[in-house]
Amino acid sequence: MASRSLGGLSGSRCGGGGSGSGGKKSLSARNAAVERRNLITVCRFSVKTLIDRSCFETIDDSSPEFNNFAAILEQILSHRLKGQVTWFGYESPRSFWDYIRVACRKVSQNCICSIENMENVSSSRAKGRAWIRVALMEKHLSEYISTALRDFKTTRRFYEDGAIVLGEEANMLAGMLLGLNAIDFSFCLKGEGLDGNFPAVIDYTPYLKFTQSSDSISSDEEELRTLGSSGSESSTPENVGPPFIMDENSWFNKCKRVKQKYQLTLEQKGYLEELLRLRENQLSESVSQNKILLQRIEDSDLAHKLEKEQLEYIIVELQDQLKSYQSLDQLSAEVSLSQTSLDPSQSQEGDGKQDTLNLISEGKEDTPSLLGLCGSLTSVASYKSLTSLKSNDYLASPTTEMTSPGLTPS
Asked: Which of 26, 108, 124, 340 matches a 20 to 30 Å C-alpha distance to 360?
């Protein structure tokens, strides 16, 4: 019997230990899920705060909204990051920059090499913070994160199970960061924000807000009235004074907050109206410039068409003139062949051909457009040969040869 009782006790203890381990696992899973959800939610709030603040001022290292966002993003990328195992079996901590450096190599025109070669940035954590700033200024932070998350093999190698970058929240993170491409950031890569000796701390106070519903407020007032009336039977209306005073103060604070929101909305409205007016002016100027450019293009097309037609007409005229001058060249060649002979009859026949050439040349007038383009056509060699035929100085005379002193008898 004793042995059975001992066995039952031992069995119950083992069962209790199993339930305890299961409870620990469920508690750790719950804590991990809550941690992931908190970081993603705070990151979304931080992005919205940055976008709202960028409407009024430039975001730089001195902006508390950016410092908080950088701390949140650093915590997300460092969530459940594996350590680096050394040769001796020890595990040393590593920074998220080690993961980004490997997973973002495929991004076109990435800044990995430039950050690696920075002289004033030595630690891995400082390089990761410099990368966040450079990626925001280049408006490529969402692209870097999306490319790194698509490389699931590398992500699995650097992170443990339950990490944010391995869960469903990773897709939400890439979509959130896409809205930061509309902000113009200005950072100094030599500031205090790049100090890698201290971890980043998230400030949750800007995102914590407690709002009491109207039902709970009325119930509090009723409780105060009930407590005031039950304290003494001879209670007077003065006992009900504090709740109404508190109510007035609460309404005054509400009105003050509404007024502040109204002023902020009014300033945003003025800014957006001014921005819209500037954009409308730019649009009207661009439309007018576009009209002027289109008119210039039409004028240039018309001028090109006219010039093309004139050139085609001139080409036709040049072809006609070329044909006529080819016929003249043939006639001049025949006349030059007849000039070598001493037969008077042939010379007379050549004179007849010369008269024919003169008649042809007189009948054909030069086109003014051709004279303007090609110069005077009277300087052609064929014209010289034709004018040389007008005088009889170059023709041999039989009488002169007969009366030459060299032929007189001695």
From this structure: 340
The encoded tokens of residue 164 equal 């944010």
- Say which amino acid occupies 219: S
Alpha helix (H) residue ranges in 166-240 = 169-177, 214-231
Structure tokens at 296: 């210039």
Q: Using an 8 Å Cβ cutoff, are 137 and 105 in contact?
A: no
With bands split at pLDDT 50, 70 and 90, how would you rate the model's confidence at 358? Answer: low
Three-class HEC string of 323-363: HHHHHHHHHHHHHHHHHCCCCHHHHHHHHHHHHHHHHHHHH
Local structure of residue 367 (DSSP, 8 states): P
Q: 131 CB contacts (<8 Å, ≥6 apart)? A: 97, 100, 111, 112, 115, 144
Structure tokens at 312: 């085609």
pLDDT in tens, 60-94: 888 999 999 999 999 999 999 998 876 666 667 88
pLDDT in tens, 299-321: 999 999 999 999 999 999 999 88
Residue 378 DSSP code: G
DSSP letters, 192-208, are GGG-TTS------GGG-
Please state, in angstroms and rounded to a whole number, the distance separating the CA atoms of residues 183 and 392.
98
Quick one: tokens of 397? 């005379």
Q: What is the pTM of this model?
A: 0.49
* Six-digit token string for 120: 């004033």
Among 118, 80, 117, 86, residue whose Cα is nearest residue 99: 80
Count the neighbouring beta carbons within 10 Å of the beta carbon of residue 167. 18
Residues sharing a CB contact under 8 Å with residue 364, sequence separation 6 or more, in sequence order: 324
The amino acid occupying position 237 is: P
